[in-house]
Write a structure and sequence with these properties.
45% helix, homodimer, 9 strands, DNA-binding, alpha/beta
Chain lengths: 305, 305
DNA sequence: CTTGACAACCAAAACGTTTTGGTATAAGAT
DNA sequence: ATCTTATACCAAAACGTTTTGGTTGTCAAG
């Protein structure tokens, strides 16, 4: 039983049309009528039905975002902060944000289709772009509005925001090389993710520059989680000739790696150097504080939105 | 240009009514017609307009959740996991989840009002209940559907899910007392939060039971963040007679406290014991692993939803 | 034959907006 | 007196559903 335009119309003795137009400040409504309507609306606590507006306007004022997560429970600070950035920006622009989580695959794509066809969202935000990305291909083909955080391999004629993963990792690697490390281990991300490759290439570039060879046996494939990082680091540090430094593809894995190093009796920052990527809040509270690359995740979220 | 009922009606040569009723399996539609309609709908890729359905049904099939966060950027694993639980459950029930963040206060309450009046949501999920909670008072008074995670002081004739904070902290305290600690510091949560008090009372109960007196000078008020925990612990450990154990109200603050202890030269688990609450994934990867109370946050999220 | 019951169908209303395409009145121009 | 222009207003259509309250045949029972 919320207040409708009709209620106001009855009260002020005008038509629904006039009330609507008054509230939208059209200039074929007299000043007095406008004032009258405004006041009545105010007093009655009128708030337009968003559903009715959406139906009539043929848009939902809603932005969709499907988080690609394996396993239902996730708690990645990266996503929290990104969502916060997107969400606050969206709210400030009068847009709703519809978030769901779906493991990559057919179900994921179907979620996109469903949300589009049912008119639930006006556009999508894509995160964690993959080297060849079905989601982007689909949206691109159907001409549905979207913005991606990250690019895909080759194709990039679509709207995106991206960080320079390559350069970030290059700088980090140079830093380690500058400290005298020559045997550098690496925990990369899932190979299908575009930035995994970018970051790996950044490392290779740096190595190449100082004439070192990239050693594939020192590079493990991680899964971006803390537990994954722990396991990967355990393996690297148990080698006959363990690396003296480990570059992880993100902070979460780096923290897991630090944990493993500790467990195996290495003193981080002395026996072994470990670096991350993202600069999540947790990073500064590890022992010692994690060396990482700052990525303004919140701001990126806002920008993408 | 999505497919509408009318498109299907035209194709099968029946009325819109019949098509609608066929799709909903009403029994005043013949079997043949049903089959015909179903097939046509399938072939044409019909997906009903959720907006139109919502307008007609007078409900939004959307659950609202306003996260109370100070500062726009937050990254609390507690919230991520809770959202995941709620979100996945909601999705499996065909409900949308509308998340926003708002600092506690007038704007927050207004967000509730707006979302209700505009018909954007059918019900709310309330998190981090406060000892006296305006949100609950408002929803209760207006008779708007909601479920809270947590109770309020005194009043509890509303639907809620809650954990036994008191008992959890009691057990944790007993554990520390059993280890021989007699000087126990504490970093509590914001006093307006209901569980802060519950947890504090749990500690007091345990102390009382062994005949120790609760020392207010050893109890600081935290803000539930890692940085906050760091600062609080710094203060406690800089006392002339620092405590030999610190109980933090949640894991995030406990991790911050561990960080501070390290920094000040204490060896955690030896010179000082530190405990948390929640059992976030991060907890098992600290050095040493954090002693904490497990709370099945994801499952609670599902349950509340 | 009628009557009643039943099966299969559908036109129209409703949900609450916004927009379209008007009309009525008054004032000024011819 | 007639035409034009501007001002203030509004009925009706539209958005895409679901539901209400029918109507039309057909067939068996009386």
């Amino acid at each position: 039983m919320p207040i409708t335009l009709e209620d106001i119309a009855k009260r002020v003795g005008k038509s629904i049309t006039t009330v609507s137009r008054a509230l939208h400040d059209y200039d074929d409504v007299s000043a007095e009528t406008k004032a009258l309507v405004m006041q009545a609306a105010d007093e009655m606590g009128y708030i337009p039905s968003s559903t009715a507006q959406r139906l009539q306007k043929r848009r939902s004022d809603t932005i969709g975002m499907v988080l690609p997560t394996f396993g239902p429970r996730f708690s990645d600070p990266f996503f929290s902060e990104f969502i916060a950035g997107v969400g606050n920006k969206a709210a400030s622009m009068g847009q709703d944000l519809l978030v769901s989580t779906r493991p990559p695959g057919d179900l994921e794509l179907q979620t996109y289709r469903l949300n589009i066809q049912s008119g639930r969202v006006d556009g999508f935000i894509i995160v964690r772009t993959r080297r060849v990305d079905e989601r982007i291909k689909y949206l691109h083909e159907t001409n549905f509005p979207f913005v991606a955080f990250g690019r895909t391999e080759g194709l990039d004629d679509f709207p995106f925001v991206d960080e320079d993963s390559h350069h970030g990792m290059y700088l980090l690697s140079k830093h380690l090389l500058g400290l005298g490390h020559t045997r550098i281990g690496c925990i990369s991300g899932p190979p299908e993710l575009n930035f995994s490759n970018q970051r790996l290439e950044g490392i290779k570039s740096a190595l190449r520059e100082v004439g070192l060879e990239y050693d594939p046996t020192l590079c493990l494939q991680g899964d971006m989680t803390q537990s994954g990082g722990y396991i990967n680091a355990e393996e690297l540090l148990s080698l006959d000739q363990p690396p003296t430094a480990i570059i992880a593809c993100n902070d979460l894995m780096a923290l897991g790696a630090m944990s493993a190093a500790h467990k195996l009796g290495f003193i981080v920052g002395q026996d072994i150097s470990i670096t991350g990527f993202d600069d999540i809040p947790m990073a500064e509270h590890s022992h010692p504080p994690l060396t990482t690359v700052n990525q303004p995740i919140y701001d990126i979220g806002e920008m993408v939105c």
